[in-house]
């Protein structure tokens, strides 16, 4: 599998995750999101940037949905309630897995969100 981004072919695994994470940029994220049927909003980018920061700056950490909810409760103060549903609005196929794919990170082998 591969993605076409600005005339360049970006290789991906059969599940759509980037083979080389260093090829990721925002244009790549937009193409992957489109392939996933996801519209990227400001909060979608919050999730993507959080996952990338955790992975790149915290020893390859890939937070599960419970940890994501805990984090975003302190960030998304404009929402009346931050729970897993608030994350699924932005990544309906699973905020941890689908958002990681859009973020250009490796596929997590963990099951479920909790």
UniProtKB/TrEMBL annotation:
SUPFAM superfamilies: DsrC, the gamma subunit of dissimilatory sulfite reductase. GO terms for biological process: tRNA wobble position uridine thiolation. InterPro entries: DsrC-like_C, DsrC-like_dom_sf, DsrC-like_N, DsrC/TusE. The keyword Transferase applies. Its EC number is 2.8.1.-. GO terms for molecular function: sulfur carrier activity; transferase activity. One of its GO terms (cellular component) is cytoplasm. Pfam families: DsrC (PF04358). It is found in: Cytoplasm. Keywords: Cytoplasm, Transferase. Its main location: cytoplasm. PANTHER family: SULFURTRANSFERASE TUSE (PTHR37010:SF1). Belongs to the dsrC/tusE family. Part of a sulfur-relay system. This is Sulfurtransferase.
């Amino acid at each position: 599998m591969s993605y076409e981004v600005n005339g360049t072919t970006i290789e991906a695994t059969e599940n759509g995750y980037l083979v080389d994470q260093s090829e990721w940029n925002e244009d790549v994220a937009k193409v992957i999101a489109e392939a996933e049927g996801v519209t990227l909003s400001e909060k979608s980018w919050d999730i993507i940037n959080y996952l990338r920061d955790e992975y790149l700056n915290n020893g390859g950490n890939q937070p599960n949905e419970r940890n994501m909810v805990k984090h975003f409760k302190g960030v998304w103060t404009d929402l009346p309630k931050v729970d897993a549903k608030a994350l699924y609005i932005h990544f309906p196929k699973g905020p941890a897995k689908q958002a990681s794919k859009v973020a250009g990170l490796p596929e997590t082998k963990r099951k479920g969100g909790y």
